[in-house]
Design brief:
Elements: H1 18-21, E1 33-34, E2 37-41, E3 47-49, H2 56-62, H3 68-112, E4 125-129, E5 135-140, E6 142-143, H4 154-164, H5 176-187, H6 198-207, H7 214-230, H8 233-243, E7 250-251, H9 253-261, H10 270-277, H11 283-286, H12 292-309, H13 314-319, H14 337-343, E8 358-360, H15 365-377, E9 384-390, E10 396-400, E11 416-417, H16 424-433, E12 441-444, E13 460-463, H17 464-469, H18 473-483, H19 485-494, E14 515-516, H20 517-529, E15 531-532, E16 553-554, H21 557-573, E17 585-591, E18 597-604, E19 607-614, H22 630-642
Parallel strand pairs: 4-8, 6-7
Antiparallel strand pairs: 1-2, 2-3, 4-5, 9-10, 9-19, 11-14, 12-13, 15-16, 17-18, 18-19
Amino acid sequence: MADDFGTPRRGGWWRRSRRDLAPAPDKPGYLEESQGYGFGHDGFGHDWDERDPHDDAYTDEYYPAPPDEPRRRGCIAGCLLLPFTLTARLLKWGAVAFVVLLGLTIVWLAATKPVSQTLDPHGDPFVLVAQDGQPIARGGDVVLAPVEAEMLPAHVIQPFLAIEDRRFFSHWGVDPRGVARAFVHNLGGGSMQGGSTITMQLAKVTYYSHDRTMGRKLLEVPTALWLELWLTKEEILERYLSKIYFGDRSYGLRAASMRYFGKAPENLAPQEAILLAGLPKAPSSLAPSVHAAAARARADVVKIAMVDAGYLTQEEARAMPDARLRLQSNREPPRYAHFTNWIRRLAVAEGYGADAPIIATTLDVEVQRAAEAAVRSVDVGNAEVALVAMRPDGAVLAMVGSKDYNANQFNHALAGRQPGSTFKLFVWLAALQQGMSPGMMVSDTEIPGGPRNAGNAYRGEITLEDAFVHSSNVVATRLYNQIGGDAVVSLAQDFGIDAAMDPADTSLPLGTADVSLLQLTAAYAGVARGEYPVHPYAVQPARGEPEDHGGRYRLDPRVHAEMIEMLRETVNRGTGQAARLPIPNFGKTGTSQENRNAVFVGWAGGIVAGVWVYADADAADRSRISGGDAPARIWRQFMIRAVPGAK
């Protein structure tokens, strides 16, 4: 039976719900009968069954459920096909994910792992250059010219292949067996194992840190494949041998062969190449220059590997002698060594990284040579000499730390010593700042129980200027007590003196606090410039931008003029006459107790220089160890050579 719309009532695909089938008593034709049943019409052509729609017999008769067997068969078929369907979907999305990941990896490699970087030298060598660009020292790690595979004998290459990667010429950058072995070992804990191929090691030393982690190892794999895609096996081998570390600051096979055997890698004997091939595993602890026995033991391991690889027979390995070391210096001794050794640590503060290849310095080669010649020109016996020269802004032009660097590497220019009467500069400056004048009268008479003048010479009532010119100790002490130790100490600190100074110490105005020659010379540069403090610097800024080296404070013009006039008179008619030049020059002498330290600091022709002569406590003859003698004469000889027109 079908309704008026032609829809089957039974066995069809469409059913009405019990609610839809419920008769409506108020609809027309409700009591009409058809085929023994009570049917009615709703006015829209639909027949309605009179029977209770909630009766199960009613529902089952007109709307029976589909048979169970076809449903059961469909379920079984679906269950059987489900694994295949899921597998197909997984394969599909896995392929999509692989393509996306591969694309991202290629983009990452192209952006962050340029192949050309494998040509860059490894290690951190540096060259210090003077103001004119002239190299003055080479330091840091030693990196020499790269090697060429075709120029190396087979017996030089074979040890590296045997111990590092004997399947190098057959794999595609990654050795699955080696990586799997290392992975299983590392999962078990203990020390991390390598498993790296030569290509992976080239990737590591070129792009990654030396941390032995699984994450870094995984990154090496795509990078090694990337390198194999762009480079030949010979190019990979050349770049690997030219970059790896062999200990003792030697990077690359050429630097190592020169350091340990004094010959080029092309000329290495088989036993020498074997010893070098064993070093990259632990270069610091196997460096032959320090750990010769460990290096030879490692060479025996390389021989065994060469036998296993077929490069040597057992008889050849046993007959091969040990390599004989011929250690060579990594580099020539640096010129101007005290200066160059001092400034390397300053480079970082000026923006140079640890791998900066060229570091520009303030050193003036001609001024440095003048300093060295001046130190040699005056005989000071067994005493040591230091000299520092700088511009008034603090740019260090020259530094000599001892008479002979080969005999004494200690840099006396940086050591704290008693400055003697050169410290009186701050006492007189403080007095001028408090309103005193060079012409005021002061008492140069003996202080009972107090300090004495040199040679017990006293002049009675003299001017403040004369007291400075002749370096009166008693006037310095009286001034210090009058103006107050706090004022003097504070002023000295403002000029950059960072020595431990107690204002209550009445010996302080006589220069008993330890100060370095570099710091003292910078303080005098502040007077020469009229601005202070002056901070010495020896490295030009890495970014090439000029820096402002102006001082935080300015001397009052009156104080400045009066102070430099007293410094000039000290050279013209006072204790510093041995330093007098035919051009305007200014300075002050200083001698410490027992004549162990003698100093002269001053300036002429735009150069501020300090000279320090130091005698050991057991020196027999210190008669010439006074500021007005050897230091002043060395200072004059320096200025004659360094300043045009000073001769």
